[in-house]
Design brief:
It is a single chain. The protein has six helices and seven strands. With 199 residues, the protein is of the alpha/beta class. Strands 1-7-6-5 form a four-stranded mixed β-sheet. Strands 2-3-4 form a three-stranded mixed β-sheet.
């Protein structure tokens, strides 16, 4: 996939070094969603995503409490939940709002534990100097982070070679994700690169 892809790594950014999330069987995830007062819930394989999802069917309405319950279950199990289109259009904003809140809380907790939160700059797209903020965020994450952030319009990306040079280790990468999230200056990347220990 080409173009700009925003990193969605909340579960990774909350830990360090990078850990694999605890695996939950699809049936367990489905039962967690069913516990939100839905009757017709089942795991299924999504051809487009090429992964198991939890499908909720035979319904036309849902309360806000039910949708928040499902969003929390989804975030906890790492399975997407699929509703009929009319409900899904209401569910998606609920899911993404809770996801962003959890990501922000996890990032702040990670930084607080390491004594970095109080030194974090707040990014204001109207008044902040993007280059100055990027340099400050790099400095917070240590010498291996220097020169890795590249400000762009509305967000940052990783500089050319940051993932392939071998200098960016797990802890530094997670730190960059967390400072970007907590500062309000989003971090994305160009192309279809993925971070791994084998970079």
């Amino acid at each position: 996939m080409f173009g700009l892809i925003i990193l969605s790594l909340a579960s990774i950014a909350s830990t360090g070094p990078i850990e694999v999330p605890t695996f939950v069987q699809p049936e367990v995830a489905a039962s967690q969603v069913a516990a939100c007062s839905f009757k017709h819930v089942r795991p299924s394989f999504d051809e487009m995503l090429q992964e198991d999802v939890i499908t909720v069917s035979d319904m036309t309405t849902a309360t806000g409490d039910q949708l928040r319950c499902v969003a929390k279950a989804s975030l906890g199990s790492h399975y997407y939940v699929v509703f009929p289109e009319a409900i899904d259009s209401i569910y998606q904003p609920v899911y993404w709002r809770l996801s962003e809140e959890r990501e922000l809380a996890n990032a702040k907790a990670w930084l607080e534990k390491r004594g970095l939160l109080a030194r974090l700059p707040a990014f204001d797209p109207k008044t902040s100097d993007p280059n100055a903020v990027a340099h400050t965020l790099e400095a917070l994450c240590g010498p291996k982070a220097v020169g890795t952030l590249k400000p762009m319009k509305g967000l940052m990306t990783l500089s050319d070679g940051a993932l392939t040079s071998g200098g960016l280790d797990d802890e530094t990468f997670v730190c960059l994700l967390n400072v970007a999230t907590a500062s309000g200056y989003p971090l994305g990347f160009i192309g279809n690169e993925a971070y791994s220990k084998d970079h």
